[in-house]
Amino acid sequence: xxxxxxxxxxxxxxxxxxxxxxxxxxxxxxxxxxxxxxxxxxxxxxxxxxxxxxxxxxxxxxxxxxxxxxxxxxxxxxxxxxxxxxxxxx
Length: 90
What we know:
By secondary structure, this protein is mainly α. The chain has one domain (1-90). The protein is built from 4 helices and no strands. It has helices spanning 11-22, 28-35, 39-49, 52-63.
């Protein structure tokens, strides 16, 4: 199920994809499963929505992160987000 690039993604989906792409623990495979964007489609999407300098910074960052690829991940990483993330404060 391939999703079209940013033209048909609604704003909150675009925001969530960008957030997931910047997160160190979220793999490219997880983004593909959830939004249908493989790594090359994600790169095109990020290039279209980020400023050129932000895109270069993101590419530089993800190139050195083995945690962005499921097969290269260290076995001790068992979840895609920090244990305190998505907690509701009361």
